[in-house]
């Protein structure tokens, strides 16, 4: 029988991360972005004190660069001192962004902060505020930026009945968009004998397994348009019987979101502008007082599609939205430090309106395509043959082939309907474009083309 305790698992703070490529943002937005990673750290410390945790673990990438800024280091030192004053211990590993080989200032850190080295996996006992042994925390830092070895294989639990926590900055079973540093498998972590794997490196939070718990905390503050949604840390409660409960705590000050707006049924520029404004206003109202960085994506089919293919129209529409956002509320886009929202991009992925029934009776290639598709939809053998021909190029990869076969039966009809609509839409738009490019006829010459 163990003791109950509570800790916070955070990762990927990336303090002082630069925000690149945002050339059009107003000063208060730029200032907010620049301070957001610092504010997330303050929120982390406030959460630790508010929730009365026994300790905090951070699974790598405290800083955004190996040669960390002095401002970032002093900021963390100041915040960690607040934890130290309340008896909250901190356990830290360094990752690929902030390896131990990077330049760092010669600062005095609170004695309650433990930084794991890069030579070997170290196990450190951690106690409750009442002095009882709560767990052992294991960890190893990156000595250099690139670590391709399987660090997880070096972790060995202490068999004394206490809760075992492993801090690891790495990639489990591969992950698109992230470098495969310290690669390992989920099966390997599950069978390693630890109760909790506190993972870092992947910026999307995820609970990969429960009992034992294998958890990515995600990063504490979104830093660009691909890091959407709430960002923060996990509050972990462990009972005397080692029951583990997780609760996500948001820490972000600025949230990046992609908002999708359909043009279906939208008949005019005014109606489109209204739909966009309503979508933004709803997102602001439901964002719990945080500032918003918004990407708007127009989707669907409708009469506005032709207009939205013009890049000038998209640019002008984006400019108009930015001007009108300030009308939502006096606290938006006005007072520095207050809630604001900014539309950083607008893109159109729309299509022309389609009447598949009308197109199916046309004496055209599009009409023949739809008639053939309709016939195949009611002939299971013909549909299966078409799908196999379409997916033939993927069959050489055994893993993809297995996945496709598993999905084919369940989703074949949906795939077929989507493919038919996409093909018809592309052909219709191409036909319209070709007609528009023809020289105009001279009515005074009997309709002859010159």
Task: Please give the structural blueprint.
Layout: E1 5-10, H1 27-50, E2 55-59, H2 70-85, E3 89-93, E4 113-115, E5 122-127, E6 133-139, E7 163-169, H3 186-190, E8 196-200, E9 206-209, E10 213-216, E11 232-238, E12 244-250, E13 254-262, H4 269-285, E14 291-301, H5 305-308, H6 311-325, E15 341-351, H7 356-359, H8 365-377, H9 380-390, H10 398-436
Parallel strand pairs: 1-2, 2-3, 3-4, 6-7, 7-8, 8-10, 13-14, 14-15
Antiparallel strand pairs: 1-11, 5-6, 9-10, 11-12
Helix pairs in contact: 1-2, 4-6, 8-10
What is the terminal separation in angstroms? 94 Å
Please state the average pLDDT score: 86
Strand content: 15-25%
Query: What structural class should be given to the helix and strand makeup?
Result: alpha/beta
Helical content class? 25-40%
Can you describe this structure?
The protein is an alpha/beta fold. It has helices at residues 27-50, 70-85, 186-190, 269-285, 305-308, 311-325, 356-359, 365-377, 380-390, 398-436; strands at 5-10, 55-59, 89-93, 113-115, 122-127, 133-139, 163-169, 196-200, 206-209, 213-216, 232-238, 244-250, 254-262, 291-301, 341-351. The strands form 3 sheets. Strands 4-3-2-1-11-12 form a 6-stranded mixed sheet, covered by helices on one side. Strands 5-6-7-8-10-9 form a 6-stranded mixed sheet. Strands 13-14-15 form a 3-stranded parallel sheet.
What's this model, at a glance?
Helices cover 33% and strands 22% of the residues.
Keywords:
disordered C terminus; single chain; 6-stranded mixed β-sheet; globular; 450 residues; alpha/beta; 22% strand
């Amino acid at each position: 029988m163990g003791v109950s305790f509570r800790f916070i698992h955070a990762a990927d703070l990336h303090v002082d991360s630069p925000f690149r490529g945002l050339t059009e943002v107003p000063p208060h937005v730029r200032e907010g972005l620049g301070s957001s990673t610092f504010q997330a750290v303050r929120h982390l410390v406030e959460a630790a004190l508010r929730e009365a945790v026994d300790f905090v673990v951070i699974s790598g990438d405290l800083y955004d660069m190996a040669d960390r800024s002095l401002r970032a280091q002093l900021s963390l030192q100041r915040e960690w001192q607040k934890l130290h004053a309340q008896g909250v211990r901190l356990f830290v590993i360094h990752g690929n962004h902030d390896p131990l080989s990077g330049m760092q200032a010669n600062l005095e850190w609170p004695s309650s902060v433990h930084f794991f080295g890069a030579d070997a996996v170290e196990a450190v006992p951690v106690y409750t505020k009442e002095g009882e042994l709560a767990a052992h925390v294991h960890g190893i830092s990156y000595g250099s930026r690139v670590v391709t070895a399987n660090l997880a294989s070096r972790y060995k639990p202490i068999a004394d009945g206490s809760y075992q926590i492993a801090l690891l900055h790495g990639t489990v079973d591969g992950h698109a968009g992230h470098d495969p540093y310290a690669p390992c498998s989920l099966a390997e972590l599950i069978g390693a004998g630890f109760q909790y794997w506190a993972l870092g490196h992947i910026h999307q939070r995820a609970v990969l397994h429960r009992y034992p718990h294998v958890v990515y905390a995600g990063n504490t503050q979104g830093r660009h348009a691909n890091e959407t949604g709430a960002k923060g840390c996990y509050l972990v409660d462990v009972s005397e019987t080692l029951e583990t409960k997780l609760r996500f705590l948001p820490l972000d000050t600025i949230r990046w979101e992609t908002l999708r707006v359909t043009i279906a049924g939208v008949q005019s520029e005014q109606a489109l502008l209204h739909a966009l404004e309503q979508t933004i206003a709803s997102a602001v109202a439901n964002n719990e007082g945080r500032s918003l960085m918004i990407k708007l994506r127009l989707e669907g089919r409708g009469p506005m599609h032709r207009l939205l293919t013009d890049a000038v129209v998209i640019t002008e529409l984006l400019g108009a939205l930015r001007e009108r956002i300030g009308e939502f509320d006096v606290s938006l886009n006005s007072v520095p430090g207050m809630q604001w929202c900014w539309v950083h991009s607008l893109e159109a992925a729309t299509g022309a309106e389609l009447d598949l029934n009308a197109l199916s009776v046309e004496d055209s290639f599009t009409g023949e395509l739809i008639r053939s598709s309709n016939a195949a939809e009611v002939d299971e053998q013909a549909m299966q043959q078409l799908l196999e021909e379409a997916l033939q190029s993927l069959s050489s990869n055994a893993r993809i082939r297995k996945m496709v076969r598993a999905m084919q039966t369940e989703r074949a009809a949906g795939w077929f309907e989507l493919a038919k609509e996409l093909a018809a839409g592309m052909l219709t738009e191409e036909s319209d474009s070709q007609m528009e490019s023809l020289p105009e006829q001279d009515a005074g010459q009997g309709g002859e083309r010159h």
